[in-house]
Amino acid sequence: MSRHEPTARMLCVGVAGPALSPGERKTLKRFGPGAIILFKRNYADRAQLRELCRDLHRLYDPPPFVAVDQEGGRVIRFGPPFIQLAPARELARVHAPPAIEALARAMGAELRAAGIDLDFAPVLDVVTNPANDVIGDRAFGRTAARVIAGGLAFMRGLRSAGIIPCAKHFPGHGNVQEDSHRELPVSHCSRRSLFEVHLKPFVAAIAAGVPMIMMAHLMTPLIDQQRPASLSRPHIEGLLRKRLGFGGVIATDDLQMGALEATGALADRCVAALEAGADLLLACRPVEELAEVFVALAQRAKSPAMGPRLAASVERLERLRQIG
To answer: Which residue among 137, 253, 254, 279 is the active-site one?
Structure first.
C-alpha cells in the first residue's frame, strides 16, 4: 500500500524545468502526487526527456503517471525531432480515419519510448461557433460525425501505441467564444444541441472504451446554474456518470485557469472538484508551490462521508494504470 494520502494520488502537478531540483524531489517524495504533467519548459531533447521520465517513475511506489498535452498544431509540448502533427481540423480535412489512426500511433510510439504514459488528447469538441478561437482548429470538425470519425481514430492510435488517451472537454467547448484560460464561458445551448451535437462524440468515445474524460471549465446552465462543469456534481455524477454511464477516470482541466478565478484560491478549487466527483485534479503549477493544496485535500478527506468517494477514485486510477 502507498504511504501517501489517497487525495495526493488524485493530483496531477507540474515541475519547473528539464530536471528535478532537490526541493522538487523532496516534495514529490513527501506527498506522492498521482501524476506529473510536462510542458515545453520540461523538454530539451529526447535523451533529457527520457531521463526526466525515468527519474519521475522511480521516485515512489506506485509510480506517478507522466502526462503531456500533445495534440498537434498549436498544442505541442515536445518539439522536433518529435513528430509535429498538423492540427486536428487539418488532419480530418486531408486524411481518412485509418491514416489519422496511423499518425496518432506513430506519435504515441515516440511518446511511449520517451516514458510518457498519458496524453490529454483527443479533443472531442464540436466547433459550432465560428468565433471560437480557443478550440478552433484543435477540433476535428464542425459536426459530431466528423469529430467522432477523427477523434476516435486518434484515440485508437494512441491506445495501440500504449498511451492512455483522454477525451476533452466535456460537455463540449465548441459553441462558446470566451477563452477559459482567461474567463468563464457560458454555454447557452439547447437540450437538443447539447445531446444531439456536443455530447455525441463523448457518447461514442464511451462506447469505444475511452478510459479518461476531461471536464471543461464552462457553465452549462441547462445542467447546473451554480457551478462550472469541472466543479459540478450534476455534470460529473449526474450527467457523465449516471446518464451516460461512464465508469472511467474523470479529470479536470487545469484548475488554476482564469475561468475559475471567482471560485476561490487554488486549494479551494481542488477541494470543490474533489467534492464534485472528479478523480484526477490538475493543478499544473510546479509542485513546490502546492503544499497548501495537498494539505487542504488531506484535511477534507478526514470526513467519514468522503471515505467511499475517495476509495472509488483511487480504484479507478489503479484500473487506469493497468491499461497503460
So the answer is: 253
Which residue among the candidates 181, 188, 224, 254 is catalytic per the annotation?
A: 181
- DSSP codes, 193-207: HIIIIISHHHHHHHH
What is the architecture of the domain spanning 8-323?
Answer: Alpha-Beta Barrel (3.20)
Helices (H), 44-130: 46-57, 88-94, 97-114
What is the model's pTM? 0.97
- So what's the pLDDT on residue 3? 76
Structural contact between residues 151 and 140, judged by C-beta atoms closer than 8 angstroms: yes
Helix, strand, coil share of the chain (percent; to 5): 45, 15, 40
Pairing state of beta strands 164-165 and 249-252? unpaired
Q: Which residues contact 34 (CB under 8 A, 6 or more apart)?
A: 8, 9, 10, 11, 12, 64, 65, 280, 317
Active site residue 253: yes
Domain positions in the chain are 8-323
Gap between the Cα atoms of 100 and 91, Å rounded = 7
pLDDT tens sequence across 224-249? 999 999 999 999 999 999 999 999 99
Has 235 been annotated as catalytic?
Answer: no
